[in-house]
Amino acid sequence: MYRTNTCGELRLSDVNKTVTLAGWVQRSRKMGGMIFIDLRDRYGITQLLFDESYDAELCARASRLGREYVIQVTGKVCERSNKNINLPTGEVEILASQLVVLNESKTPPFTIDDNTDGGDDLRMKFRYLDLRRNIVRRNLYLRHQMAFETRRYLDSLGFLEVETPVLVGSTPEGARDFVVPSRMNPGEFYALPQSPQTLKQLLMVSGFDRYFQIVKCFRDEDLRADRQPEFTQIDCEMSFVEQDDILQIFEGLVKHLFKSIKNIDFAGDFPRMTFADAMKYYGSDKPDIRFDMRFVELKDIVKDCGFSVLDEAEYVGGICAIGCAGYTRKQIDELTEFVKRPQIGAKGLIYVRCDNDGTFKSSADKFLSQDLLKKIAAQMNAKSGDLLLILAGANTKTRKQLGELRLEMGNRLGLTDKNVFAPLWVIDFPLFEWDEDTQRYYAMHHPFTSPKAEDVPLLDTATGTVRANAYDMVVNGVELGGGSIRIHDSHLQHKMFELLGFTPEKAQAQFGFLMNAFQYGAPPHGGVAFGLDRFVSLFAGLDSIRDCIAFPKNNAGRDVMLNAPSVIDNAQLDELCLKVEPKK
Q: What is the per-residue pLDDT across 205-215, written as a single tens digit (0 to 9) for each?
């Protein structure tokens, strides 16, 4: 073998041993007649010593080594005189007696170090070099640990890992599919799965009552920090279960991962919050509950105050920023500009300072009396020294704007520590959401989500009020996963398709295989899928999922290393019976 030891394992107990190491040259330093080289592999760094007085020719060869050269070195383990307490191997070094250059290297386009000088685009272009950095490699090791522990936990509960196809049929409902032309079936296309949803339901019909898979999924969507065109799910399904069974088992998985990977224990059950309460108090279906700062509704208090902004608003609500009455005008102006940003869209911000002398100062003093401001402060449970921030407007839109403002204040006040974790289940989602543009209902999750049994009679009479047997796992404002109890009754599934605007022919064409399977004894079943990329990103304290994926795409969906997607030649197009027209 090329090495007897790795670059991360030698200690004082190994002194006087003769060893052989192999790896990459991290850096080289010349001091008098000696050359010190840091040799790196994925396990760590070991210092090599080439001494001119010991072997002048070997020392001369070592002086010609460049960064990222791949070398093999044999020598004796010695105790270092200038120990490095920041390195696990920092008490020893190798006095080199042999050197083999296994491969030379061009000078890398950026430094292979935690604090690299390479920008995102450059690092993605040379991702194979970026992956040599400890900080990135640790993320992939963390990903490995989490996948391994997931398998360990689910295997202990009798789950079977079953692979499902990557080439499936297209289902236009939901996100946009990636499609793949079929050479053997000209003019027809496969799709890459957005998730194995229908396939895992078929496994339940087949009697595999506990299934899981760590699986690639694909969605042709616009990208952002927590989204890639291809991503990985921990996909799970169970038969003969109700919602509470799912929540208990997969809460157990989340606790297992926190304990085994982060050594964090959670006492008791995770809190559960209805979708309605999440929107009412946080303006989001994935609330960050590391800090409180809940919304307080003020419409009843401020109605008929003579201020048209409040009088005419459908919704008036605010948050209390404890101890922030000392905010300067500049800081408040910054908050105003924040909520007016196009991606948030508020028209303005009303503030109320609760001064220490019991009086109030507001940006709307012309319309709001001290008595009314006192009532507002009481309603918001504000104390002297607090700052009240109020938005008004349309109900749903304003709640979302206030939710963004709440998160901004949480960040400004240091309330979003990445080492603090606050998990919860969000439950009782609406089954449908209404789209104004198309004037029709869409499934909030997917067409196979079961309605609450008590809400089934409302499907025809009050469709928009029907609640789903659906649930999301949220940690620190990040939706880590979600799922639902599925419809297993053919008649109810047909009704669902009807409400979603499917003709019987269209439903049969797209989902006939599932509907036919349900006629052969489908058990009650449900499941959940966690985003592995998001989970790893949360544990690693990252702001983007890119650095926990070995070879990610950029924000334009491009792999700049492989130059994909790319144009294919006409011969391939002819084989596929395709013709590419210029975009109009």
A: 999 999 999 99
**Parallel/antiparallel/unpaired status of strands 210-218 and 160-161:** parallel
Q: How many Å apart are CA 426 and CA 28, to the nearest integer?
A: 54
* CA nearest to 426, candidates 487, 482, 485: 482
pLDDT of residue 173: 62
Residues 362, 370: Cα–Cα separation, whole Å:
9
pTM of the model: 0.92
Cα–Cα distance between 487 and 448 in angstroms, integer? 5
pLDDT value of residue 172: 65
Q: Which two tokens stand for residue 523?
A: 């058990």
**Domains of the chain: residue spans and CATH:** 12-103 (2.40.50.140), 136-272+422-549 (3.30.930.10), 291-409 (3.30.1360.30)
C-alpha–C-alpha distance, residues 318 and 302, integer Å: 12
- Environment class of 495 (CB within 10 Å of its CB; exposed 0-12, middle 13-18, buried 19+): middle
CA 368 to chain centre: 43
Q: Using CA atoms, how far apart are residues 150 and 152, in angstroms rounded to an integer?
A: 5
Pairing of β 189-191 and β 70-79:
unpaired
What DSSP state is assigned to residue 391?
E
Please count the residues of the chain.
584
